[in-house]
Amino acid sequence: MNLPKPNSSYEPALVTRAGEVIPNAWQLLVDEDTTGAEGPYVLGFERALRDLDGLNGHYGVRVNPGDDVRLLEPFLDRITLIEVAFPGYRDGRGYSTARILREDLGYIGAIRAVGDVLRDQLFIMMRCGFDEFLVKDKDPAGAIAAASQRFSTTYQGAADSARPVWALRHGIGA
Amino acid sequence: MKLLTANRLHDGLTVWYSGAGWVEDGAQAAALADDVAETLLAEWKLRETEVVAPYLIPLTDRGAPVQREHVREFVRANGPTIGQTADALSKAFNRADIFEN
Amino acid sequence: MYVYDTFDHAFTRDRIREFSDQVARRLSGELTEDQFKPLRLMNGLYLQLHAYMLRIAVPYGVLSSRQMRKLAHIARTYDRDFGHFTTRQNLQFNWIRLADAPKILEELAEVEMHSLQTSGNCIRNTTTDQFAGAARDEHADPRPWAELIRQWSSNHPEFSFLPRKFKIAITGADRDRAAIRVHDIGLHIKPQGFDVYVGGGMGRTPSLGHCIRTGLPGEHLLSYLEAALRVYNRYGRRDNSFKARIKILVAALGPEEYKRQVEEEWARMDRARVDAPQAEIDRLKTFFPDPTFNTAAFDEAAFERARTADAAFARWIRNNTHPHKRDDHVSVTISLKPTGLPPGDASSAQMDLMADVADDYAYGELRVTHEQNIVLPHVAKNDLYALYTRLDAVNLSTANAGKITDMITCPGLDYCSLANARSIPLSQEISQRFEDANLTDRIGDLQIKISGCINACGHHHVGHIGILGVDKQGIEFYQILLGGRADEKAALGQITGKGLPAEAVPAAIERVVQLYLKLRTHDNERFIDTLERVGRDAFAEALHEPA
């Protein structure tokens, strides 16, 4: 029997929105782990809210669907990576999370999509402000290239630099 | 005993497992022993590039499907029951009720 | 109507290329069915009981004759020669091959159509008044706003994976023909701005929308919608798909708290990033001018001669025309509810004929109604008899618009994999029982709406008489609801007593109708008026106990 091999069966690889496959230097801490010299660390959301006030240096934070990302606002100067989790790719809460970070809170660090991240979500993730993707695909760089070129027209303003059609039609923001 | 049915991936049509392969005519569906049916179902669930959503229809002793699913399975096997929508398939096979064999 | 510019064409092309790639990856096995399903749904492709069904978007129900001909062509070439018009003012084909879907989308793109977001957990086709731009009681044309929403919602990056589907309806007339109170968001254009209703819907938890804002300026419509959707996307339930619609969130928070969260989100939002500028709104408005009306004087004498000579024509005029803003024109409803055929279905030949008469008598414009009929919005009264004669030749002159036999009926178990019971055969039996034209006319306006399951695609909650198909140990039963309405006095029908077997339903409805005819105070007291005056109980009794 010649069973198909889905793209999602490949090991996730970390790729930037420029299409560069990069190693993951970050380590996700479970809640009771102590921070050591190995860093840098990604803190769970609850722990970040609890501990970041007393910590120096730069941390990552994992945001799950249902976490109110606005609670991170006081700590954003200590955060250089936010991992937005997609436990299932049909759960779209992470898109709002990213846009709030970029457009509302003015966060300029990295936003990374982790979890069930597949080729067909990359375009809208880029539009919402994600810039790193832990994607399951046999060709991660190719997936990024395809997503970047997928649509020449965007109808709405979002977190990326693409101008909505109405801006192009009326010469706004040129 | 059970029948194995699914929809074919490329055109979506309702198909039936005949013992040798998939056919469009429900009357050619093989009545499978329960354990054989379960094994075949597990196998075909993995063969997603051929069929979608395979499932088993239990047959009662009389060879009729369980009551709970009767209308649904009848319509699915024979096409819409009414009007210009009457499925060409059921006309082609000229069978009022494929389960009453 | 709206005409694509180079951006719209480019977007549609890109979208087809994307979906073609997804179909190819599904066929090769790179995508699993589980992964492919939401992608195909967002392109309107369902797997139904017999085959794939493709639902094509008719944005806010507006069709040109050229587009209607293309739909006829698709029916002939890729399907079994007919299509089904839906309550979302769309059209669906029932036997589409997966491999043909990209080709069909290319054919549609030639006439500026698509199937984008006709399914899936995203923002669906915005629906509106079928008489938009023509009705006498309209104060603002909803079509430019519906087009604004269409563009904003197309491939929206944040709202493509909502908790559940999301439906918006909009009206600009006094009479609500768009059922805005039973939509996720309903918009009513008033002189001082938009009234925004949220949290209406049908399905297993029917509810009427709550007004959370009045006087919303049009230039901020999109940012307000974006705020409303963001609150829903973040906090709508995702643990149970039956409780995932916005109405459940609004009920759980309370409309006041939901409104507070929306307003807070809206206040924080960079609106300039979201709201299209006034220049764009003005541009969209230019696409919906009046046609160049035929101003030849109305030949009333000739019209009256035809009406006197042909009783069937007279009846059709009485039932199937709607007042137009010009005295010498009317809007015409082409009923897709002839006795003996599935409601909402049209053959390719009928579609072609409707396109032809639209060109000859209606300035090339058609509308799909949420009642599953076709409307010619602008017809000169001088042309009515010629139009009628041509419709009559292809069984499209049924004179029952708004009458008891003009039922909304979902496809039911004859097509739908979700249904519990068949809807179409029951609607046939009811329409046969009330086939007598005199009886139908005597009964007057009465809306029966039939759904084959709790999902309520047949709008049974807002039928004057609603019928819901249920499955009782393998046998189809039908629960009857009374007193629903979808108009500006929207109300939800209530279930009366036990379910009836299919064969008992037509007689039960006849008893209710006979009671109404007995109880009404005068010929113009409509069924729903009598029901509301007398109360449901007497009617419920008549339903369940033979007189």
Number of structural units classed as domains of chain A = 1
Figure out the total of helices of chain B: 3
Strand fraction of chain A: 15-25%
Class inferred from helices and paired strands of chain A:
alpha/beta
Tell me which oligomeric state these chains represent. Answer: heterotrimer
Nearest-integer average pLDDT of chain B:
80
Q: Do you know the CATH topology of chain A?
A: TIM Barrel
CATH architecture descriptor of chain A: Alpha-Beta Barrel
Rg estimate of chain A, integer Å: 17 Å
What is the total domain count of chain B?
Answer: 1
Strand content of chain B: 15-25%
Helical content of chain A (DSSP H or I, runs of 4+): 10-25%
User: Radius of gyration of chain B from the CA trace?
Assistant: 13 Å
Report on the biggest sheet of chain A: 7 strands, mixed
Helix % of chain B is 25-40%
* SS field, number of helical segments of chain A: 5
Q: In what order do the strands lie side by side in the largest sheet of chain B?
A: 3-2-1-4
Give the CA-based shape of chain A: globular
Descriptive tags:
heterotrimer, B: 101 residues, alpha+beta, 3 helices, 4 strands, disordered C terminus, C: 547 residues, Sulfite Reductase Hemoprotein, domain 1, Sulfite Reductase Hemoprotein, domain 2, 5-stranded antiparallel sheet, 38% helix
A few lines on this structure:
Chain A has 174 residues and is α/β, with parallel strands linked by helices.
Topology of helices and strands:
The complex is a heterotrimer of chains A (174), B (101) and C (547).
Chain A: E1 13-16, E2 27-28, E3 41-43, H1 45-51, E4 59-63, E5 79-86, H2 93-104, E6 110-115, H3 122-128, E7 132-135, H4 140-148, H5 165-169
Parallel strand pairs in A: 2-3, 3-4, 4-5, 5-6, 6-7
Antiparallel strand pairs in A: 1-7
Chain B: E1 2-8, E2 14-17, E3 22-23, H1 34-46, E4 51-58, H2 70-78, H3 88-93
Chain C: H1 6-28, H2 33-41, E1 45-47, E2 52-56, E3 62-64, H3 65-78, E4 82-85, E5 91-96, H4 101-110, E6 127-128, H5 143-153, E7 168-171, E8 185-190, E9 193-198, E10 210-216, H6 221-235, H7 246-253, H8 255-268, H9 271-274, H10 278-285, H11 300-309, H12 311-320, E11 321-323, E12 329-334, E13 345-347, H13 348-361, E14 365-368, E15 374-380, H14 384-392, E16 408-409, H15 424-433, H16 437-443, E17 448-451, E18 465-472, E19 475-482, E20 494-501, H17 505-519, H18 527-534, H19 536-544
Parallel strand pairs in C: 6-7, 7-8, 16-17, 17-18
Antiparallel strand pairs in C: 1-2, 2-5, 3-14, 4-5, 4-13, 8-9, 9-10, 11-12, 12-15, 14-15, 18-19, 19-20
Helix pairs in contact in C: 1-2, 1-4, 3-13, 6-8, 7-8, 11-12, 13-14, 15-17, 17-18, 17-19
